[in-house]
Amino acid sequence: MANQNFSKFTDLVWTVKEEEMFKDDLSFEFHSLVYMVSGEMKVVQADRTYIFEEGSMLVFPRNQISTVIKYPKNDQPYESVVFRLTVAHLKPFYANEMPNFLAYPDTSVRILAKHPLLESLFSSVRPYFDLKNKLPENIAKLKLEEAIAILRFIEPNIDNILSDFSEPGKINLVDFMEKHFKFNMPLEKFAYLSGRSLSTFIRDFKKAFKTTPQRWLTRKRLELAHFHLAKKDKKVAEIYMETGFENLSHFSFAFKKHFGYPPTEVSV
Q1: Which of 20, 52, 96, 230 has a CA positioned 20 to 30 A from the CA of residue 41?
Q2: With contact defined as beta carbons under 8 Å apart, do 82 and 34 qualify?
Q3: Is the pLDDT confidence value at 14 over 90?
Q4: What digits encode the pLDDT tens for the residues 89-106?
Q5: How many Cβ atoms from other residues are within 10 Å of residue 51's Cβ?
Q6: 109: closest CA among 150, 168, 68?
Q7: Is the pLDDT of residue 157 over 80?
């Protein structure tokens, strides 16, 4: 279980610590600026996979579906410090700053090069978890502006992400689901990210796929798992985590029910 340390005196930052392997499928409604203190993190998205290790710094854009798997490494737990950049935080900043749109929008994970300004930023916020009183709003505002200023300095195209306050628009549901079915997200989240209410999502889904979302998702995930086991020579323990199943026993049960034999008997 994730050990997340939130400071009750500021919502700007938190730390995450894992003593054992931990997996989650997620999509945040805010941008995350992350510093990896120790351990390893594997991030699986629709079209790419990343591996981050100790010392890595990155930006997770909001509304991106990912499977995140965190591992201890070198006898050290997984630990990270996360800086939370919400739309409510960013709107006031860009009301007074003209965004620099130097490239087409890119919502992929931004891997940041090591930089003394970033290292100094993360070092400065870690003591916030020892606060005994609420962080003054003017200090929090300054720290937020410092984080944005540093990102804009070292990543000239970051405004394309940070200054985009739009909500997901209605997109092609078939294309979206074919790209994201392996992620174990609530239907409400799939609906939101495809630009629909839940009721509209379910109606459009049944019209497009001629079945319910739950049945279609289970079948697609099992077929993907079978493909990886048969063609990619991957281990069962890897497959269930990357194909939307909550745990190994649930995956094994569903796999055998669907194919008639357990995943361990798939011929490579």
Answers
A1: 230
A2: yes
A3: no
A4: 999 999 988 888 766 667
A5: 11
A6: 68
A7: yes
Give the whole-angstrom CA distance, residue 200 versus residue 195. 9
For 173-265, CATH number out of 1.10.10.60, 3.40.50.11690, 1.10.260.40, 3.40.640.10 equals 1.10.10.60
**What's the CA gap between 184 and 200, in Å, rounded?**
20
* DSSP count for the chain of H helices, then E strands: 10, 10
- pLDDT band, very low/low/confident/very high, at 1 (cuts 50, 70, 90): very low
Q: Which of 126, 156, 159, 157 is nearest to 143 (CA)?
A: 126
Alpha-carbon distance 79 to 86, whole Å?
A: 22
b or e along 203-237 (b: 16 or more beta carbons within 10 Å of the residue's beta carbon)? ebbeeebeeebeebbbebbbebbbebbeeeeeebe
Segment 240-253 shows an average pLDDT of 89
Q: CA nearest 82: which of 2, 156, 166? A: 2
